[in-house]
Amino acid sequence: MVDYYEVLGVARSASAEDIKRSYRKLARQLHPDVNGGDKDAENRFKLVTEAYDTLSDPEKRRQYDLYGSSSGAGGDPFGGGPFQPNFTDIFQTVFGQGFGGQEAPGPRRGEDMETAVNLTFEEAVFGCQKEISLKMPTTCPTCNGSGAKVGTSPTVCAQCQGSGSVKRVTQSFLGRMVTTMTCDVCHGEGKVITDLCPDCRGEGRKTLERHFTIEVPPGADNGLVLRLTGKGAAAPRGGQPGSLYVHVNVAPSERFERQGNDLWMRLPISYVQAALGAQIDFESLDGSETIEVAPGTQPGATVHLKGKGVPVLSGRGRGRGDLIVAMDVQMPKELGEEEEALLRQLAELRGEQVLGHHDHGIFSKLKSAFKP
Ligand SMILES: [Zn+2]
Ligand SMILES: [Zn+2]
After folding, report:
1. Rounded to whole angstroms, how far apart are CA atoms 260 and 215?
2. Which of 5, 30, 201, 321 is the most exposed place for a label (fewest CB within 10 A)?
3. How far is ligand 1, taken at its centre, from the CA of residue 328, in Å?
4. Which ligand has the minimum distance to the alpha carbon of residue 205?
């Protein structure tokens, strides 16, 4: 009995990713296209593909681990039982169409479009509706996207009978192989237009200005991209439209700085309020707030207001961040006569050495020396 794990050179505990990686490596080395018909490489290629087919499918792998076969209890996978993997399918699933394949049949999908929306800080925090408009390929209003002249309709493609693809049978080392190719008459659309719509020249779409109302969720931030499925470019003649991606730009706030869902702000308070404590009114994002400044508050000290920050983006009602208020203790730049007298009294009381009243004349002179 052949051990599929040994064939792929992986441990029995290997992850799906390990198995795929190992198969890719081996299949590249052993693919007959690279080995010029070497029989030994061909057989090994079949074997690794078979091993991969079993081990890459969780259910088949479970069966194989239990019974030593992916087709139920007992049985030898090489005895020609019900298990007959399609080598081409498996190979193309792993490598895509790039390894000598063709493009998939069927109508083309419309392109994805991109645009940006500019929001104020508050719009981003609380969410909003925005009108945006941009030019993009749009279903032709004259022919309704069919590409056919009004009054005429596309006819079923004679080559593929409307299926959009043609089958080609070839003989290869794997036996009889059926390859599906895009029909080259209708390019996979299954229909042929005989009279073109004059408005879009048969494209079924034309570039027009489109308008959208977009819903920006609360908690949006720079770097957020909103995806509007099906709002991208129309496909030529009846395929799926693309998606519209809207990049969100948020203007900075003059008062708040955002850190994740928390907001920071500086609250200017006087040195007297910091020393004696105070109740201070200020505007948060939600409106008026009153904050308690404790006596002896130091510059930079913070007060946290729970739930006054930015709403959590994913999922409404999942709460909000905090507003963190940092105390910006301000020293007076100029003192009135009475204030100065009181402060001098305070300095004397605390036994602190300060400049005399006339000494700061030196600073005034220095300052005026630099004035133009
Ligand atoms: Zn048209
Ligand atoms: Zn066709």
Report:
1. 21
2. 201
3. 65
4. 1
pLDDT digits (tens, 9 = 90+) for 232-247: 999 988 788 999 999 9
Tokens at residue 335, please? 């003192």
How many A from CA of 237 to the centre of ligand 2?
Answer: 14
Q: What ligand has the least distance to the C-alpha of 192?
A: 2
Q: Could you say which architecture CATH assigns to the domain 257-330? A: Sandwich (2.60)
pLDDT average, residue stretch 324-338: 94
Q: Residue 140 Cα, ligand 2 centroid: separation in angstroms?
A: 23
| 143 alpha carbon – ligand 2 mean position (Å) | 21
Q: Locate tokens 């005429």: which residue?
A: 152
Q: In this structure, which topology does domain 108-141+202-251 adopt according to CATH?
A: HSP40/DNAj peptide-binding domain (2.60.260)
pLDDT digits over 167-203, tens only? 888 777 767 777 888 888 888 888 888 899 999 998 8
Ligand 2 centroid to 194 CA: how many Å? 13
pTM score, whole prediction: 0.58
Dihedral angle computed from the Cα positions of residues 31, 33, 38 and 44, in that order, rounded to the nearest 10 degrees:
10
Contacts of 31-36 with C-beta under 8 Å, sequence gap 24+, read 31/91, 31/99, 32/173, 33/99, 33/100
Among 60-69, 70-79, 327-336, name the one with the lowest average pLDDT. 70-79
Cα 123 from Cα 129, distance rounded (Å): 9
Q: What average pLDDT score do residues 24-48 get?
A: 79
Q: Around ion ligand 2, which residues have CB less than 5 A away?
A: 157, 159-160, 183, 185-186
Per CATH, the homologous superfamily of domain 4-98 is DnaJ domain (1.10.287.110)
What is the arithmetic mean of pLDDT over 203-230? 93
Q: How far is the CA of 106 from the centre of ligand 2 (A)?
A: 10
